[in-house]
């Protein structure tokens, strides 16, 4: 939103996104904001402001007519000269007296904060809007008059019931961010090809899991309209097609890409193009059928910036060696593999080839029965998750292994009957979840007094 409002711009060769991240860290460093949630790379996802500091900031903001936080009174009572308005409570749908011709930002989050009729009135009066964030609101239709907002740079519809976008969306030629995450939109409109300044598209649709290894989100169709969006940095999530790779050829600024519905026939052309993107740092791939083998034998990793890799689909160890470990400068810090196959111990293999891993998740992976976290390896690993690995019978933590790990989750490993040796050496551990293990494991855990041995402020869950 800072970028959309023009508060953050290019500086010293850094993109606005990088500059905004630096400003955020600076505000945290000076205790103006407090991190609440961070991602796997330590970047702040959500934060809070100290209540006293917030009151001071709001009073200054309102006095200068910079903005109003509409938490405790109706929008209709706000000053018509206000430029930024945050409405988090119910707005009177029957009143239409509010006119805010100077409004640049409208944030109406939460149910009943705004209706479609109210939006039409806002669009008619506030034509200079740059930011429109309606996430979690109860709207189900975006008025066609949204196309009149010629200055709009940010459109957020996350977690709404919207099923489609009006054709007038093509008029929003200044739009930089389009957030459709968790809506009912299944297809990108043709008019999106006109939005040449788009930098971020979020369009994941979450679905209910029917099996432990099943997908949790689904992409949208409409990839053929993407070839004109040469400034696009984020594309999450799009369904693959035979021509999908060609549509991505001109998108040289891509940083984050999530692809759904990938078939074996797509792989060769698609990944030869995707893995050459010079700035690609995050790649999430989901196969059409998670048991279908992804054909990556002839594909090599050439992107040197890749830090996050998620693969949901059937890959053999030999393909993994060729696909992941041959990168010229391997920087992968986050790895999530589902339904991959290893002939040997995946932990030892990954420890040797991905020394900078910070988060590792293996789900429904085939491997040998005895897993070993090798000595003095995974020195930067913060989170380790092993799920639905029915063949695993034993886990050993050698001296000096995973010294920085804070979260260890063993979920549905029913053949593990003994407490992992070396568990007491994990001094940095803050979260230990042992779920779906054998009944013998729970018996040994209780008999050995492991709850008492693992002292400190540790979140422990042990369930059969």
Automatic annotation (TrEMBL):
<feature type="domain" description="Disease resistance R13L4/SHOC-2-like LRR">
    <location>
        <begin position="123"/>
        <end position="432"/>
    </location>
</feature>
<protein>
    <submittedName>
        <fullName>Uncharacterized protein</fullName>
    </submittedName>
</protein>
<feature type="domain" description="Disease resistance protein winged helix">
    <location>
        <begin position="1"/>
        <end position="56"/>
    </location>
</feature>
<dbReference type="Pfam" id="PF23598">
    <property type="entry name" value="LRR_14"/>
</dbReference>
<dbReference type="Pfam" id="PF23559">
    <property type="entry name" value="WHD_DRP"/>
</dbReference>
<dbReference type="InterPro" id="IPR032675">
    <property type="entry name" value="LRR_dom_sf"/>
</dbReference>
<dbReference type="InterPro" id="IPR058922">
    <property type="entry name" value="WHD_DRP"/>
</dbReference>
<dbReference type="InterPro" id="IPR055414">
    <property type="entry name" value="LRR_R13L4/SHOC2-like"/>
</dbReference>
<keyword id="KW-0677">Repeat</keyword>
